[in-house]
Amino acid sequence: MESMRKIKTSWDLYVEEELPKLESRNMFLPIRPMNISIAGQEEGDQTHLVEDEYKTYQGIQPWNRLAAQVMLPQIFFQRLMDGFELTSKIEREEHEIISSNQEKQFKKLALFAGNDFLGLSRHPTIATAMAKAAMENGTGPRGSPLVCGHTYYHRALESALANLKKKEACLVFTSGFGANMAVMVAIGSIVPVICEGEGRRPTKEEKVAIFSDALNHASIVDGLKLAEQQGGVQLTNCKNKRKVVVTDSLFSMDGDIAPMGELAQLRKKHGFLWVLDDAHGTFVWGKNGGGLAEEFNSEYDVDLCVGTLSKAASSLGGFVACSKIWKQWIQSRGRSFIFSTVAPIPLAAASHASVVVAKKESWRRREIRKRMKEFHALTGIPARTGFYCVAVGPPVVPPNTARIRVTLTAVQTSEDIKRLAALISKHVKFQAPSNIDNSNYTSARL
């Protein structure tokens, strides 16, 4: 396929050369593709997920609005209004009340605090795909992907994600956190595995130097700790032959977008492996929903693209889109993949439907852009990325940097934005709206 440009980098060649060493030491772990018996079908019949059979819609439907609403128990809502949420005593008392069904009154609110960016959580096509898979295959997982859990549904999901990201292959995880952990550990294990096979310790120059943005997601930070990688050296001064740069594409707490163009140029200059966590950009940015790499025409510059299915896809899980060689290395060395149970088939089926629907219903991406422009016009805040409407404090963010984050979605209306802006204006002095073009993607903090 022309979209999957097979231009091997020095990193690809390096991993390709080292992979046989895993096999020679019985450390390569292959994924075993399997099919399962389907209720109502004869043995030998194959499952087929036909993308053209997924029904899509144009424009907001009545059921879409349910994805932009939330119901809170009245007692909890009142405590929020009174400022008594953050005490353990209140939480214990409330749990007892709700568990005993004493609370029957609920307050309906417009939701600006979720990650359902495209509003797909109430999409009937996705629900139907999940229900059909459950009726035919049951609900429970079968085991780990390396033992007996990698079914046709999981392979179809991986293929759809690889095509979306313009990569040769894809590996699906049960969480985005696990995907980042596996990537970091797998990268960090390359040199130790080689040197152990040769009966020696790696030299300082042989070690992989990993450069990570200070604001990267906690899963990247924790993965680097497991990989025993430490910072302290600038990219231009690094003497290590093998270098890696890992960054979020969209930093969810500050709302900033990574300098994609500049990173692509640095990659050409320094030859590093580029790992991009596109959790908040996948399905939302780019013509086809390919994320910020597609938006900035740098899909072929990114080597490993990590994403999540629990945000814009309104499902659960994570993935790594990469080359076939890298997929084999990660599945053999990424501990969070090796030792995790596979996602249940109905969830894999729902995720596959979400990928297809998100790509085809491009109007959802346009609606998000409209909400951003309206929010900016009313508040002066250049909302080019996500916000969140619940107070966020430590340990999620560093001490003394607590903020309010507002999440805009495709199924909110102009009236929702006006009401939100009017409410916030009672507590925040808005700046005058400025004229910003589509090339400026940086947002301001409230």
Automatic annotation (TrEMBL):
The keyword Transmembrane helix applies. Pfam families: Aminotran_1_2. The keyword Hydrolase does not apply. The chain crosses the membrane at residues 169-194. GO terms for biological process: biotin biosynthetic process. SUPFAM superfamilies: PLP-dependent transferases. GO terms for molecular function: pyridoxal phosphate binding; transferase activity. Its cofactor is pyridoxal 5'-phosphate. Keywords: Membrane, Pyridoxal phosphate, Transferase, Transmembrane, Transmembrane helix. Residues 111-377 form the Aminotransferase class I/classII large domain. Belongs to the class-II pyridoxal-phosphate-dependent aminotransferase family. BioF subfamily. This is Aminotransferase class I/classII large domain-containing protein. The lineage of its organism: Eukaryota, Viridiplantae, Streptophyta, Embryophyta, Tracheophyta.
